[in-house]
Amino acid sequence: MRVVGRLAAALVLVFSVLVAVVLVRTYTFKPPAVADTALVKVAPAVTVDVMAAAGRLSQAIQIQTVSHQDPAEDQPGEWDRLHGYLQGAYPAAHAAMTREVVGQHTLVYTWKGSDPALAPILLMAHQDVVPVTPGTEKDWKHPPFSGAIADGAVWGRGSIDDKGSLITLFEGVEALAKQGFKPRRTVMIVSGEDEEVRGLGARAAAALLKSRGIKAQFVVDEGLAVISNNPITGGRLALIGPAEKGYATLVVTAKANGGHSSAPPADGGGVVTLARAVTAIADHGFPLEFKGPGAAMVQAVAPSGPFAVRMAVANAWLFKPLLVRQIGSSAAGAALLHTTIAPTMLKGSPKENVLPQDATAWINYRIAPGDASAKVMARARAAVGALPVTLSWVSEPQEPSAVSSTISDGWKVLSAVAGKVTGAPVAPGLVTAGTDSRHLQSVASDVYRFQPMEFSLKDIEMIHGTNEHLTLKNLEQCVQFYARLIATAAG
Question: What pTM, to 2 d.p., does this model score?
């Protein structure tokens, strides 16, 4: 009995020590590798005529710079119209900056600073928009290219993605130029022509800057935003993306003999083989891991979250399985913690009673930082094993971006301005989609992805969808952000 008593006492002691360690770590937890911005002096607010700015955004939305998968469907004249409109609408900005056109319609602006020893800052916003799905026009509260100003917002395709950023960026520059601002640090604007489809314009701009030996202090492009009801604390959170996922589409092809469907082969034919291969690849997914930018976001928010969240994050060594399970319980949360696999397209026989001679599937991957396309391919090959299929890429994969610093001077300035203008706490996050900024990595020390717009999780569904609109409050906030970022970083 004494032995049992001693064992019980030892267990109580161990448990008590464990509880003490957990509590101490919880109450002393600080997010790793996120800089203090207290010493950054953010430039003062500028005067914004919100309705005039809304009118200019409305005009830009009415110019239909729609990028299609088939470039033959594009209307190049619309990009020319937009260029002319920008020049007419923002005379002070165009007098202050030099303007170049690269690629077909990509714009590169330079506002030369007085101190050439300072690395420039580079701001981005693309010109093109996605098409409106045919037949859905009637579902819009206001016609998708009307640019209607109603119900406290500007409505239309591109009002958020990304003419909202483009116009408010120019609004900010125009306001600074009119008040006589002279940058010490050079400010550059790159506006890609085809971000939604190919990104050739951003590549052309990067090549131009690289040929001139330019290395920017930081780049800011679209990507993340202010979330009014983030799922960790339930409150507002400004998310800035120091990284974005890679992009690749795998083609899986099963060859077969074909023939008449009345006499199918014993193995079921190419479609059955393909189905087995796709299922095997999808079932052989990448594990969820609490690391990288996705984990950094949770760590940054945890101190202001509920006690249980703070405790779990502060003691990830103990609660990591619980964290992974909880975050990964939603599709959006899971996407932050691993490389995703999404079968999206299938092709078989052209006729219902004909066995196909080949069956094909397309699988889209969003590759997490830390993984690579070579690892994706190796995992897919291992999954299909001896199945008679071929695997290839639709086009050269885009690897995940590097993870930019969250302790650099650029991060300090950006996060300080974002926090000041939006009034929301700031945290790093992972961009699960792709942006033009990936092509500028070679000409910048750090690349960040942030739009100073506030949305609920439900609101985000309108981007690329129906009833896209930018509220007047967001519009004013964007103008203030870009003006104050430039004045703070380059002043």
Answer: 0.92
Catalytic residue check, 195: yes
Pick the CATH number of 50-242+401-490 from 3.40.50.2300, 2.60.40.1180, 3.40.630.10, 3.40.50.1470: 3.40.630.10
Three-state helix/strand/coil letters over 185-254: CCEEEEECCCCCCCCHHHHHHHHHHHHCCCCEEEEEECCCCEECCCCCCCCCEEEEEEEECEEEEEEEEE
Cα atoms found within 13 Å of the Cα of residue 439, Cβ hemisphere only:
22
Which of 74, 78, 128, 476 is flagged as catalytic?
128
Distance separating alpha carbons of residues 444 and 27, to the nearest angstrom: 38
Q: What is the pLDDT of residues 222-253, one digit of tens each?
A: 999 999 998 888 899 999 999 999 999 999 99
Q: Are 63 and 82 in contact (CB under 8 A)?
A: yes
**Residue 289 is among the residues annotated as catalytic for this protein:** no
Compute the distance between CA of residue 124 and CA of residue 157 in angstroms, rounded to an integer: 19
List 195, 196, 222, 468, catalytic entry: 195
Percent of the chain's residues with pLDDT above 70: 98
**From CA 17, how far away is CA 459, in angstroms rounded?**
46
Separation of alpha carbons 65 and 44, rounded Å: 34
